[in-house]
Amino acid sequence: MSNVGPNVPHPGRALREAWQRGTVMVPGAFNALVARAAAQAGFEACYISGGATANVAGYPDIGLITLTEMCRTIREIADASKLPVIADADTGYGEVECCIRTVVEYERAGAAALHIEDQVFPKRCGHLDGKDLVPASAMAEKVRAMARYRLSPDFVIIARTDARHVTGFEDAVKRANLYREAGADMIFPEGLQTEQEFADFAKASPGPLLANMTEFGKTPDIPAARFQELGYRVVIYPLSMMRLAMGEVARGLAALKRDGSVRESLPRMQTRKELYGLLGYVPGEQWNFPNDR
Question: Which residues contact 44 (CB under 8 A, 6 or more apart)?
């Protein structure tokens, strides 16, 4: 099931309209239930991190998740949330031909946008050192092919460059501008370290920009309002909800092991009533499957 159809507005159009109104905060959703909660909280879009998708399957973020697994996650989250979904496509799952299939399959699954990065496979988390880059021309060829073969011009192609901590800030700008020329709708400069770097990058690469506000990385905590002042249209929070959830899971497991009871954790739990409300489920009544957009 997809949120793209002949009588349904393309989610990429909704995402583009949202960022024209102001900077869009996009929380990461590591499953469909979290995506529904993001929608309930009033967010205009949600994000699927390749790292989070790998982590919840028990893997590190080193490119082990397949195209099929990501498309299943996209479909579940897009259907459950009704939100435009920005999805991580890592390095495109291969060379140009694979990238063409990726953009088609992501869009068919219901994504509004994807981002692809210029790292060598197997990739590393963008906020770790020790990364390697493909030639800028090779990345531009991937972007050009994806822009050409997407099913709708509304689908958003986001090009990420990891050059800041590999070849330097100036090369990151050069790569960004090359990727824009190749057809990228938005640029994602990964791993910038200061507000001044974000400001300088926006001046040197004018056009739609995405900022990654991940925790415990190279980027300081910058509020969304400040990102808007700096010229960034989208801010993603890729792992925030997973980190919150897993922190509480670890504390709850420790309490259960220690006390033989979850009594200490009860005040912090989502209640049965709250869960049913999030799902739109009333016991004893027919539940309508969320297939209308």
Answer: 14, 15, 18, 24, 25, 26, 83, 84
